[in-house]
Structure formats: C-alpha cells, structure tokens
Amino acid sequence: MRKIILAGIGLLLILGALYGAKLLVDSKNKPKPVKEKVIKTVITDTVINSNIKIVVPANGNLVAKQRLEIYAEVQGIFKAGNKLFKPGQEYKRGEALIRMDASEHYASVQSAKSNLYNSIASIMPDLRLDFPDVFEKWQNYLSGFDISKTTPKLPEMTSDKENYFITGRGIVTSYYNVKNLEQRLTKYTITAPFSGILTEALVTEGSLIRSGQKLGEFINPSIYEMEVAISKTYSSLLRVGEPVALNNLENTESYIGKVSRINGSVDATTQTVTAYIEVKHANLKEGMYLEANLDAKEEQDAYEMDRNLLQDGNQVFVVNNNVLELINVTPVYFSDSKVVIKGIPNNTVVLKKSVPGAYSGMRVKSANN
C-alpha cells in the first residue's frame, strides 16, 4: 500500500513538472507589445510666390562729405583770435580759423606798392607829351591808387606803342610782383570755407607755424558719406539716388541715406565695386560704424525662407498628406540667414522651422491645423 501511495505522489510530481514546463514555454512565445509611433508636430507655411526684393547688406564707417585738412603755406606766429583753436570748436563760413603775424610781409607789400606808384608817377610827364590820348586814364589810375587797399588792375593798353612804353619801364613787372605779394599776404589768414567744426588741432596760439605744417582738420558735421564694397554681380543694378536703409550695430537707431556715387571700376583683388552712400542726421558722428541694406533688384515669382531649411543646396522639405517629401528648387540669392528660391508651386505646404532628424517619408503633424 505504501508503495502505491509513493508511486502516485511521484507521478503527480512528474505531471506537475511537465505542466509547469509547458506554461514556461508558452509564456516565451507571447508576442512583444508594439510601441506606438510618435508623430512629430512641425511648423509649416503655405507658399505664395511673390516679387521678392533682393537686399544686399554692406557696412562701413561714416566720413564727413566736406572735410578740410588745414596746412600752412607761409611761416609765422599763431596769433590769438576770438575763439580758441581747439577740437570741437565751431566756426561759421568765412570766419578766421587761424591768423598768423604778417607784419613783416605786410611791410614788404607796402614797399612794393610804393615802388609801383612811383614808377607810374615818373612816366606821367612822358605820357603827357608822347601819348596825350592815354594820359588821362593813367592819371585817373594814379588818383584812385590807395596804398592801404588792394592794388587795382592796370589800365587796359590800347596800342602796341603804349604797351611797349609801359612794359619797357618795368611797370607791368612791378604790378605783378605786387599782386604776388598781396596774394601771399592772404595766406597768413586761413578762413573756414564752410560752416563746420574743428575735429583736430595740432597747434596752439603763440606757437611758430612753419610752411607746409599740418595745423588740424575741419569738417562739416551736417552731411556724411559711407563707403561700401558691393559684389560686381549687383553693381550694375545699383542706381545713383536710390534710397538706402541704415542702422547701427545695436539696431537701436535707423537712418535713410541715398546712393550718391558709384565707382566705375572693379577692384581687381576683391572683385567688388565701391559705392558711396550719403546720409544726414543730427545724431551721426564721423567714424560711426553703420550697416546698410541696398535694394539691388526684384526677383519675380520667388519665395523667401530660412537658409537652414535648404537641403543639399537645392532641395526643401514639403508636407504632402502629413508626410515629408523632398523637392528640387532653384536658389537665386543667399543672405546671412535667408535664401530666395524659385520653383515651388503656389499653395505648397513647406516647413517653416527645421526638424531635427527629418527624412523623406517621415510622418508629421502640422501645428497650424
């Protein structure tokens, strides 16, 4: 009896082991749970082709359009004036910038004038006897001769005899010597050719000024020019007088200028053309660095998008039935952040922001829906 019970227990254990093994095998054959695909949400835009203005960026420093480097043509002591010769000092047109002591040269001018007067006076008796018809005009010239004023022009000589007589007495030579000295006398005073401001002063009152010495710089602060280099590709599209948008580096201030001049030659090294932009504004100063945006041309039936959306230089992603597809396009202009392209049909849905890991055939969902 005992043997029968033990045999039954052993059989039950064997059957239990077999059933457990079967359950274990069946559990391994269960299908793995399928992960649900994540569909990315993208920002899209609908293409409407239009006329896109090609804006060429450029930059440069402002330089006063009217500027004067002041140099001395004579030597003398710098005399003090009504205004100090210092940077920042303003002067009106015709106002004296620098006066030099010209007393020695002035005495030479007066001496030369006196010699001219005496030379003419000495020939008056001969003119009365030999040239009575011209005596009166020379007499009037002497009567109007004022040694303290600018020497008047000599009377016009109407005959060869008169010309030979006057020239032979050295009067014409004396006259031009006097005019030369008078002209040099004016160089002892340097006047402002336009209203402006002194930006550099290299001499002070009382110092000795030498001929050829640079004395300072004077500018007109009301109008400036900016020199910019433009690619020769767009140089033929620029026109003198076209408006130009300008702004500072911080983009806190903007100005409107215009193209004033365009150089006719191309720089052989950089293959660029120099254009000059004229701008007026009370806040501008010489030397300021500005950025310019020049309207070069207008591209017909084009679309502008972020440059990082362009794939392999000539493809972009479009969304077709919530699936990304690549289409070929034709880029026509690149800027730092944008690209102008042609070849996208109207009403095509394209990506507006780049999608990391995007590929053709990828399922997406538009955030615009």
From TrEMBL:
Stored InterPro entries: MdtA-like_BSH
Ranges of residues in domain Multidrug resistance protein MdtA-like barrel-sandwich hybrid: 69-215
Pfam families linked to this entry: BSH_RND (PF25917)
Superkingdom of the source species: Bacteria
Gene Ontology, cellular component aspect: efflux pump complex
Record-level Gene Ontology MF annotations: efflux transmembrane transporter activity
Protein name as it appears in the record: HlyD family efflux transporter periplasmic adaptor subunit
Organism, scientific name: Neotamlana laminarinivorans
